[in-house]
Known about the structure:
This protein is α/β, with parallel strands linked by helices. It has one domain: Histone deacetylase domain (Arginase, Chain A, 3-Layer(aba) Sandwich). 38% of the residues lie in helices and 11% in strands. The protein has 12 helices and 8 strands. The protein has helices at residues 26-36, 39-43, 45-48, 59-65, 68-74, 79-86, 108-132, 158-168, 186-192, 243-255, 291-307, 325-337; strands spanning 2-5, 49-50, 134-137, 175-179, 198-205, 231-235, 266-270, 312-315. The radius of gyration is 19 Å and the shape is globular. The N and C termini lie close together (10 Å). The structure holds zinc ion.
Amino acid sequence: MKTVLFDESGIINLKMFGIEIPSLKSRKTNTLEALLGDSELNESKDTWLVVTNPYSIKREDLERIHTAEYVEKLYSEKVDVCIKNAFELEKPDGTFNRYNPEQMEAPLSELFNQVLKMSSGTYYAAIKALETGFCYYMGGGMHHGHKDFGHGFCPTNDIMLSASRIISEKKANSIWIIDVDAHKGDGTAEIAGDFDSIRTLSIHMAQGWPLDEPEYDSTGKFNPAYFPSDIDINIKSGEENTYNARLVKGMKQLENLNGIQERPDLGIVLLGADPYEKDELPSTDSLNLTEAQMLERDKIVYNFLNDRNIPAAYTMAGGYGSYSWEAHYNFLNWVLKKK
Ligand SMILES: [Zn+2]
């Protein structure tokens, strides 16, 4: 049985905080509307659509993956600074970046609460996947949240919050994280480095954010964007035609990391739509998969996990502008009709 979680209360509304990033609520609502516009899926919606999530994320969950200092800041008045840094709302010269505080309807501390609410959906998807084999969450994918700071719109890391909680609750002994978002899953790579039971694959743009600065700065300081995943696949501009073949090869390497074929108890997938050629975030211009390549990518990931009977939780991850929902819809329309 397949489940899709659409939890309206977990949708982050950046606009209400004066943040001008084209991460639109319509990506989720358009995807859902298109699915419900299909008569077959509409008739069966009671079997796959879930709209409430009973779980929440607590401080102890954050403490499993972040430093004590960072968690302390998130639960103090310094949360505003953490959020500003994570969403890059201020430039080094103090001017605002994609941010208009005059439009603010609620304080940034409330945005942190929304992030936690959103993150709880990823945990729901993981639990549901363990029970039923497949759950897709219309949210999640904050893979740039590091141990002691957030960036790339990610004050925390819902993927690692969920994976580490599942492990600590002994609901699974081993987890793979497969990240096909356009951006490298740098925070996930750093945090997962502390967990022997969690393996990571990230396929992403070779150039561009977060890999737009050198690995070491002029003082020799390591750039945390370069924390290695177990498998990193760097796609350069113009290499789109090799993308899916290299993804297959990477997943085979992931299952043979220890020299023998292994199978985890759970997969968590970041099915970002930002590699799509119609995605509108300027920083993803160097990776442009067609609609057909996107759907092929998603089928590759799904079939790889499904053929091995690996329960899998899917998150939406990145996707920006007016068209990214098409990629999410194409996958769900295919997977929900698949017998
Ligand atoms: Zn992304």
